[in-house]
């Protein structure tokens, strides 16, 4: 005999059935991994490299992981860890890529390819650098990781690329200081602004922001009536960047206040400051794992010798 359920019990049972149904659907939607099938290690690895070359990052990860699963103690397995990390990096899965790099370093700390693992971690942090108006935690991480590469492997190709990226990271950090300084200056907090502009000159003087920092100091000191300081910073700006637009502005500003600078600005069209550059994060410049050659697409052109 069937029992009569109350309305409340019926609702509860319906809710359970819906939950089970949703869970079942969620389980079905999960991306299946490669079915286990014993295959030659060279075939698995080359297929992963082919998927990478085609830009199929997730499929590449599956094949390289399969190399590790079927041939865990082989040289191919060791290389596959880095290839997995590189595929994760190309697919913008930076946390996974960093995890792969850390795993390689933990398992093979003395292996020559550990240099690439450190490099891969650094470029993953570098790729996550955000706009100067937002928190710069990733920028600081990137700077520390890039410096680590240079310190550990100073004569490597990874260090060469890391040094270029360090310059761009410093440019980013200087940009952050400038943005805060401008805000303070605009809102009448002149002393706070001066502190920010001085920080640029002390910590990031080789960046593209140096000319503006000097100009802003001229502007700030004139606001405070400190004429000697304004003239001194204007002289430094004119001596080092006579053809920069910021010196042309400083020159006019100093003249308007009766402080005629000794150095006149170069004529319009003169060579601009060589430090003026933009922050570029083109993955086409990122080095591929050891022994692999990158294609024009950013993938890999086959598998080279071990």
Structure explained in plain terms:
- The protein is mostly helical and 306 residues long.
- Helices cover 64% and strands 0% of the residues.
- The chain contains twelve helices and no strands.
- Helix 5 packs antiparallel against helix 6 and helix 7 runs antiparallel to helix 8.
- The radius of gyration is 29 Å and the shape is elongated.
- The protein starts with 6 loop residues before the first helix and ends in a 50-residue tail after the last helix.
- Keywords: Cell outer membrane, Lipoprotein, Membrane, Palmitate, Signal, TPR repeat.
- Pfam families: YfiO.
Our Rg estimate from Cα atoms comes to 29 Å
- Name the structural class: mainly alpha
Number of strands: 0
Level of helix content? 55-70%
Order of helices and strands: HHHHHHHHHHHH
Distance between the termini: 74 Å
Mean pLDDT: 82
Number of helical segments? 12
Share of residues in strands: under 5%
Largest pleated sheet: none
Uncertain residue ranges:
1-32, 269-279, 296-306
Give the CA-based shape.
elongated
Function: Part of the outer membrane protein assembly complex, which is involved in assembly and insertion of beta-barrel proteins into the outer membrane.
Protein name: Outer membrane protein assembly factor BamD
Keywords: Cell outer membrane, Lipoprotein, Membrane, Palmitate, Signal, TPR repeat
Family: Belongs to the BamD family.
């Amino acid at each position: 005999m069937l029992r009569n359920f109350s309305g409340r019990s019926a609702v509860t049972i319906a809710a359970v059935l819906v939950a089970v149904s949703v869970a079942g659907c969620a389980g079905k939607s999960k991306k299946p991994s490669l079915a286990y099938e014993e295959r030659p290690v060279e075939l698995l690895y080359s297929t992963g490299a082919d998927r990478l070359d085609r830009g199929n990052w997730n499929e590449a990860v599956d094949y390289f992981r399969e190399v590790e699963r079927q041939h865990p103690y082989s040289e191919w397995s060791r290389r596959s860890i880095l290839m997995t990390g590189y595929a994760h990096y190309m697919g913008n899965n930076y946390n996974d890529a960093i995890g792969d790099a850390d795993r390689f370093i933990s398992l093979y700390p003395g292996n020559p390819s550990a240099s690439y693992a450190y490099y891969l971690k650094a470029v993953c942090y570098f790729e996550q650098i955000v706009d100067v108006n937002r928190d710069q935690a990733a920028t600081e991480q990137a700077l520390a990781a890039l410096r680590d590469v240079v310190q550990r492997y100073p004569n490597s190709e990874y260090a060469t690329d890391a040094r270029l990226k360090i310059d761009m990271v410093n440019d980013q950090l200087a940009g952050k200081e400038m943005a805060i300084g401008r805000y303070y200056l605009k809102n009448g907090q002149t002393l706070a602004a001066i502190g920010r502009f001085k920080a640029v000159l002390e910590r990031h003087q080789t960046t593209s922001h140096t000319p503006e920092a000097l100009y802003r100091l001229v502007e700030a000191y004139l606001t405070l009536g400190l004429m000697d300081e304004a003239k001194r910073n204007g002289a430094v700006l004119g001596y080092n960047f006579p053809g920069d637009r910021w010196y042309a502005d400083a020159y006019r500003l100093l003249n308007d206040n009766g402080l005629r600078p000794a150095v006149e600005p170069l004529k319009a069209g003169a060579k601009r400051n060589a430090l003026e550059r933009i922050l570029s994060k083109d993955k086409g410049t990122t080095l591929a794992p050891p022994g692999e050659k990158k294609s024009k697409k950013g993938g890999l052109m086959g598998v080279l010798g071990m």
